[in-house]
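dumping these here so i dont lose them again. two proteins, back to back, each one seq then structure tokens. dont judge the mess
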Amino acid sequence: MSSSSAVPGVQKIKSSLRQTRRLLAKDNLAADVRIETERRLRSLESDLAKAERTRQERTLAVKYHKVKFFERQKVCRKIKHAKKELDGTNVSPENLSSLRESLFSHRVDLNYILVRHFRLNGHYPKTRKYISLFPQEAAKVDSGAGSSDTDKQRSELRRLVREAMEKGKMDAEPEVTMDKRRSQEEAMEWQEASEPPAGVERKGKRKEVVASKLKGVPGDAFFEASESDDQGQSDDG
């Protein structure tokens, strides 16, 4: 959440709400004060809803951080293996199509893990629990991870991701974009750490090194910045 839209914590807002309601309960409250207080009450109620949603998003991000980390590692290994097989010299024409489909399927899974929002009868909010690709891993966190209803949701979400990729609405090579984003973040951190004191211009070779680190590293519009989820992605890709 940006500093411009930040709201206080849940308990602080609840305390302000109690004070505001007590003030509105007074019979001798001036009309202009009552109007202003009612406006403040509505604003506080809105802030409370935002704060509770943010807290729930953070709770879910922490809860599923380890599951998503291991799933991302597992899928990235599969992608690497599939690409290696495709680059091999002994690939027969009969196996080529199968290997390409296998690689695409693994990329669907990686997009599934990385994506934050997509459509499933409307908006898919961050307050909804993450449905693991590998139920046996998720069962350590969620007792219902292997239920038939969850299996149906997982299949539907994967279908939506696959369709979005086929239509060009999702990254076709998410592992490449993920690596570029990590390189961009590392380059920016390197630049910030290398900034000279205020009023001192960077000169010579050091200036060229910083420019070369940042050159050709694109921004990533697909992976949105998120206070909760970026905790996991900055640690593990």
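---- next one ----
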Amino acid sequence: MLQFPISTPQPQSSSSEPKIGSTMCCGGGAGGCYDACCDACCPCVSYDARETILCCAVCLTVLAGAVLLAVLLAAYGFVRHLSVTVDDASLTRFSLATTPATAFAYNLSLTLVVRNPNWAMSVRTTAPLEAGYSFDGQRFDRVRLADEGDTLPAGKTRVYHLASGADGAYVALGNAGVAEFARENATGTFQVEVALAGEVRYQAHLAKRRLEATCPLTLQLAPPGTPAVVFQKVKCKLAKPDKNG
């Protein structure tokens, strides 16, 4: 009688069986990974202490993010506009010719100060910055202070020393303007307005803003050789800024 060997089937490993190495950490999610790392690195630390450390770390991260956001918002979120003052000015010649046209012969010197009060944002000119001189509402001259692309750093001040003059600066004065000049000429004190005009862009802001300021000056005529006249500092009035894009 023939006998055939009987083979006993051996258990086969299934790919569905969990692998200890991979499930110890990732099978439990982020918390499982955290516990596994703590068990491996610092087994002497209790579970409660681990939870406290994790909670504190999360809170500190959130707090740091909130503080950073507040600092960035304070630094770049709110614009403080430039301030403009005339710190000194002197008028040594101011006479009016009426023929063939009304024109001033004048010499005017002044110190114009522009300050950027922002502690983080610089300011860049996107158009030339100019100062115009007017009498009785009529411009008779203008000077350029800065070209396009000039930058005023955060918290800094720019001082412009201007010395202007002409022998025949045309001014469109009517009869009323000529009469006003005669009245002021009789006293030797003249009302001259300096108007600042330009366009700027603040750092981290896309919008361009018009920069306009008016500085009404009361100037005592002081020809060369006469005692110097004390000038009272004038704070210029800023026009409401417009956004141009």
